[in-house]
Amino acid sequence: MVMSNSLFSNTVLDPSIASLVPANHVLRPLEATDFRKGFIDCLSNLTITGQVSEQMFVESFEEMQRAGGYFVIVVEDLQAEAIVASGTLVVEQKFLRACGRVGHVEDIVVAKGQQGKRFGVTIVKQLVQIANVMGCYKTILDCDAENVAFYEKCGMQKKAVQMALYAPEAAHK
Questions:
Q1: How far apart are CA 150 and CA 114, in angstroms?
Q2: For residue 19, what is the DSSP state?
Q3: Residue of 135, 116, 130 lying closest to 18 (CA atoms)
């Protein structure tokens, strides 16, 4: 059962950043009803989403809500009642740095036909601001080489190297 329609309280959003989206758009936390507003379709502009039913979406939403530390923000086109951009911040509790926290920016996506409206930059700014509010000592992200320039415009700096090992297909839900 969903505890609240929003994944997290919008009080952590900076109104001066949220107001950067154009008229007839709103930047806000992910809501339990966003499946019907095309959230998964928007994510499919980034990578493979697989077949996600509304029930699967709600179950994942509830799991994130219970766990805490998940901040998925979206830009909704109010006229079309559609999600046109999204990004995620996951806050990791550490033992390092006096039990500090690290913010991981993930899944920055802007739907086709919506690029050029600065949704991506605005989302990254908002996620970094949330990481600061949550007390993260750093905010990091992994990206493809062709996206480095975009993230540098957002104030990020190139550092280290990402490695990955994907689980066998059978390990996926």
A1: 16
A2: T
A3: 130
Beta strands in the chain (DSSP E): 25-29, 70-77, 82-93, 101-110, 136-141
Q: Which amino acid would we find at residue 59?
A: E
Q: Predicted confidence band at 157 (pLDDT cuts at 50, 70, 90)?
A: very high
**CA 21/CA 125 separation, integer angstroms:** 12
Structure tokens belonging to residue 92: 């990791």
Three-state SS at 125: helix
Separation CA 169–CA 172 (nearest Å): 6
What is the residue whose two structure tokens read 């600061």? 132
**The tokens of 104 are what?**
């991981």
Written as six digits, the tokens of 54 are 């509304």
- Per residue in 38-85, pLDDT tens? 999 999 999 999 999 999 999 999 999 999 999 999 999 999 999 999
And the tokens for 101? 């926290």
